[in-house]
Prior knowledge:
The protein is α/β, with parallel strands linked by helices. Helices cover about 40% and strands about 25% of the residues. It is built from 9 helices and 11 strands. It has helices spanning about 1-25, 85-90, 115-130, 140-165, 170-185, 220-245, 260-265, 310-320, 335-345; strands at about 25-35, 40-45, 60-65, 75-80, 95-105, 185-200, 210-215, 270-280, 295-300, 325-330, 350-355. Strand 10, helix 9 and strand 11 (about 350-355) form a beta-alpha-beta unit. The longest helix has 29 residues, at about 140-165. The chain is globular, with a radius of gyration of 24 Å.
Amino acid sequence: xxxxxxxxxxxxxLDWGMRLYELRKKLDGKVIHLGNxxxxxxxxxxxxxxxxxxxxxxxxxxxxxxxxxxxxELHPFTTITHLASQNRLTIQTEDDLPVQFLFRKRGTxxxxxxxxxxxxxxxxxxxxxxxxxxxxxxxxxxxxxxDRTRSISEDVEKIASDHSSSTVSSGQxxxxxxxxxxxxxxxxxxxxxEGPYFTPADPSRYKIxxxxxxxxxxxxxxxxxxxxxxxxxxxxxxxxxxxxxTPKRVSSVPAICSSSKSSxxxxxxxxxxxxxxxxxxxxxxxxxxxxxxxxxxRVHRTSKDRPRLDIAEALASVCxxxxxxxxxxxxxxxxxxxxxxxxxxxxxxxVDFYGARWDI
Length: 360
């Protein structure tokens, strides 16, 4: 019996040893407020974590630990960074790669205001009854760090604006004040990171890639869009180099986890992102702004008065524009949204898909 269980125990110990080894070091990061309750988390990932990896997939997730929010919790996050292109574009002498995550503060809307009189009565009642304390979302605690500086930033911007309207030669002063205000929207933090863990997906094998995402599920679509933008840039650079009839190319930067040859021969021609988001939660994200890459972003805002995104209809509209082209769909969001997307993809002939589910 021992000989049967020994390999599994060894693998279990080795797995936990590798996890603890990655979590031992705290990484420097920043929390940036993007507006309307959306936040960006930027960390410096040690480059050696990508050594020897076959990371052709743009989809990767990490487990993040923030001791100030919770001592025991490790939370999975899909990175919005395309690690292969980031690894190639970052100067090789740099030890860390900037890796970015996106999350949204859920908040506790509707919580009753507690006055001193109410607090005294509630405390007396709690003495005789034991009730669980209301849990605070892990992401809310993380977002609160940036919220503490946001009000200061708004005050600085207001002072800068008022000063510019009352003083003629205050251009430089206003610029400095606005730069200070933007800096105050970021807060330095320390976190521990486990990963990356890559999802086996290769969009470059398909002519058309469609992302159906809802809410914060847009993270994976941003990473896929980054891969598409990077591929288009490499193709443009190769065409430009060929047109100039330069000698044989000698690259001084090793292509780790990616290659220009694979980008040049890629069949990926089109990338369409359908983002379903509630009207009250919408914010213009700066990660899709690249008009030269022909990336298509279609935002579907929903509310009580607006219908939900019809994935089957949207998928058919894209496929009908290029019948016969190989198509792959990425689905991310609530389970019901992913299930609706899987049903639509199965009904559409010749469409492969992947549903990003955290639960197994």
